[in-house]
Write a structure and sequence with these properties.
Blueprint: H1 3-19, E1 45-51, H2 59-66, E2 72-78, E3 89-95, E4 112-115, E5 129-134, H3 142-157, H4 182-192
Parallel strand pairs: 1-2, 1-3, 3-5
Antiparallel strand pairs: 4-5
């Protein structure tokens, strides 16, 4: 191997190491790469969280935190008798144990989850998305519920689990922070909604 070829290999390896994402900062998009359609680029994508939960669940607080991402405009609305939840909307509901098989009694099953329909050929979601929160967890602490809501809304925006305990997207919802981490904002702005 010549000197210049060896030097090129060393420089290339150094560049790859220096530009790699830090540990715990991997691409954490959902596996199906689903996301909300950006209608008028460069304007941000829009999604509304239609809140059917009432006061025990801090959906409004979580929506405000997710709205800090630059490339997605997050709206929140309290559901009324005639609320319309169209194509860019996620209903957020609190259900009792007997209303959902994934919820166990006394908050022993899932504390919450996100349902969605498969994205279209362009990986865009449409109607039918819903976040479900376990009403039997109402007695849990405010910070626990805040972490759960933040986590499930993050899935509804296109994020998968994170290995960072500094983010509400940590793989054990409710066992980490109650707000998004900087990496999640970067994923939304630079990867998922950067088109």
């Amino acid at each position: 191997m010549s000197y210049s070829r060896g030097l090129f290999t060393v420089v290339l390896a150094a560049v790859m190491v220096l530009t790699a994402a830090p540990v715990g900062q991997a691409d954490n998009r959902l596996g199906n790469y689903g996301h909300w359609k950006v209608r008028d680029f460069p304007a941000p994508a829009r999604v509304k969280f239609l809140d059917h939960t009432g006061t025990p669940w801090p959906v409004h607080d979580a929506a405000i935190k997710w709205d800090e991402a630059a490339n997605i405009d997050v709206d929140w609305e309290v559901a009324g008798a005639y609320s319309n939840c169209g194509a860019e909307c996620v209903r957020v509901r609190a259900l009792a144990n007997d209303e959902d098989p994934l919820f166990g009694p006394n908050c022993t099953g899932a504390a919450g989850y996100w349902t969605n329909y498969a994205p279209d050929a362009s990986y865009h979601w449409g109607e039918g998305n819903e976040v479900r929160l376990n009403r039997s967890c109402n007695s849990e602490s405010g910070s626990y519920k805040k972490a759960i809501v933040c986590h499930e809304l993050g899935h509804a925006l296109g994020l998968d689990h994170s290995s960072s305990t500094g983010s509400c997207m940590y793989k054990y919802a409710g066992g980490a922070a109650s707000t998004p981490g900087e990496h999640q904002y970067n994923m939304l702005d630079s990867v998922i909604y950067d088109h």
